[in-house]
Structures are given as structure tokens and as C-alpha cells.
Amino acid sequence: MGGRDVPRWLNEGLATYACGELDTRQARFMVETAARTGRLLDLGVLEGLLGSSDARKDDPIGVEAAYFLAGSLMQHWIEKHGLDTVRATLLLMRDGSSIDGAVHKAVQTSLRDLVDQWRESL
Fold it and tell me: What is each CA distance from 13 to 1, 2, 67, 96, in whole angstroms?
């Protein structure tokens, strides 16, 4: 069986985290604002913003915030569970596991719980 597509929130979030862009004042402001308002904290919303060419035209600030939020999620994941669990998740997906199954196996918690923990940390 072929591998699974990596969700954009994971791919772009990991790239944003790795580039160190989360340390900017703008990134901190956008993440704090999203946490305070509860907006953009859903993986489906992040996935939609990161994958939509229309959103890039119509909501560039929302798209920028989505990158920072995806990066924030990845930062939380790596700080709490280690970079090896992200690597293990990607390898499991390459081997055909769904994102939910891969996260559960690699992190020993559900993706939903991981996201809930991230939201609470904000």
C-alpha cells in the first residue's frame, strides 16, 4: 500500500517551527489572539486555510495566522513528546497509516487529545 498524504497543518507547521518563525512578535501576537478568541484552533480550519489559493487572496492574514498556529502546534508536540514522535508519525503514514492512527501509535495519545493539550497550553 502506498503512503498517505501528510496534512498541510503538519507539513507547514513543522516547516514554520523549524525556521524559527514562531519567535517573532507578529507570530506571538497572532497565536495569542487566536487563543484568546478561539478562532483558527481547529485542524480542519487550518488545513483549509493552508491549502486554499482563494484564502491566500481573500484572507491573507488568516493564512499567515494558520502558518503560525500550525507551527505552534508542532512546537507543543515536539516539546511534550519529542521530535522522534513526529518522525515516527511520518514514517507510519508513509507505510499507510492514517494521521490519527500514526499519531496514536507514535505519541501514545489520540490526535484529538494532542490538539486539546495544545489548545489548553495556549
Answer: 26, 23, 6, 21
Give, rounded to a whole angstrom, the gap between the first and last alpha carbons of the chain. Answer: 38
In the chain, where the domains are located: 8-121
CA distance 17 to 74: 7
Q: Output the pTM of the full model.
A: 0.93
- CA 38 to the chain's CA centroid: 16
DSSP class of 24: S
**What are the per-10-residue average pLDDT scores of the chain (122 residues)?**
83 96 94 91 94 91 96 98 98 96 98 97 94
